[in-house]
Amino acid sequence: MSVALFVPCYIDQLYPDVAIATLELLERLGVDVVYPSGQTCCGQPMANTGCNDETAPVARRLVELFAPYDSIVCPSGSCTAMVRGHYAQYFEPDDETFQHVRDNTFELCEFLHDKLHVQQLDVHFPHRVSLHQSCHGLRELRLGQSSESMTPRENKVRKILELVHDIQWVEPQRPDDCCGFGGTFAVNEADVSAEMGRARITDHVSAGSEVLASADMSCLMHLQGLIRREKRPIRVMHVAQILVGRPL
Questions:
Q1: What is the pTM of this model?
Q2: What residue spans define the domains of the chain?
Q3: Which among 245, 240, 242 is positioned nearest to 209, based on CA atoms?
Q4: Residue 196 pLDDT more than 90?
Q5: According to its UniProt record, what is one Pfam family this protein matches (predicted)?
Q6: What confidence tens digit (pLDDT) does each residue in 37-86 have?
Q7: Is the dihedral of CA 50, 55, 56, 62 positive or negative?
Q8: Side-chain half-sphere CA neighbours of 45 within 13 A
Q9: Inter-CA distances, 19 with 149, 203, 239, 240, Å
């Protein structure tokens, strides 16, 4: 299996350790990982603001770049959901190259759960952890159970994290509420976005969490900004960092 690592642009620029942790994790599990040079943004910010003409060449570039690989792994539910759920409008219905990339692009925990069937990890993280489940991960990729859905679903992110030794789980009261980020929503509706984020942080802090974990660094970026400015007693970490045993 040839596996290409797709690193979202904001992770590349702001949180490179998340990409490094993802690479380390996959290599520890015996995966031969390639990082295709020249990759750029998936186009989600432009698409979210209705700039379809500007998104199209970005989408086509990504598909061209990743087409040679059996699987594409991305440490972001939102960027994975963009490729899988929103790229079709930029390609012909019978475009087999696009179909290959769409059908073989996976969020990191989804890949570990569904493709590698990981059953154990030799890593310890002795801290109280709560899980923020991103909207894209739950409602587009179906990585877990959302409260508005009657269809039972296994929580793939939680199941992979439960392989970590000594992790101590605490549960927020509203485990699948939106954090308020939503990309351009945080710009267009800044006050609403910030209040939604504060509500999520308060829920996790009240549960006694030391570490607010998520498979989406975009959500954590939004929450981290509020935590730092308001000096809340909690840290954020991407699941990849926990899965390789990064210290708190």
A1: 0.95
A2: 3-115, 128-243
A3: 242
A4: yes
A5: CCG
A6: 999 999 999 998 899 999 999 999 999 999 999 999 999 999 999 999 99
A7: negative
A8: 12
A9: 32, 28, 11, 8
